[in-house]
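Subject: for your reference before the review

Hello V.,

The reviewers asked for a structural picture of the protein, and I figured it would be easier to keep everything in one thread rather than splitting it across files. Below is the amino acid sequence we used in the manuscript, unchanged from the supplementary table.
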Amino acid sequence: MASISDLYYDEGSPAGFSTLRKLRAAEAAETEKGKPQSVAATKAWSEQQDAYTQHRTVRRRFARNP
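And here is what came back from the structure prediction:
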């Protein structure tokens, strides 16, 4: 079983340096029971990675307070 960092940093993987949705799908395919980590755990892991936080899309329009 490959860890989440192995999947994310593998250029040959479909989830390599990609979105959280693709990363969770690849992780589900790799696990024995087909259940990846929770969304919050995957997002928390990705927020700690420099490659994810530096190369994500820029939000041009911010949500306004009502």
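For the response letter, the relevant points are probably these. Residues 4-54 form one domain. The CA atoms of residues 56 and 64 lie 21 Å apart.

Happy to draft the paragraph if you're swamped.

O.
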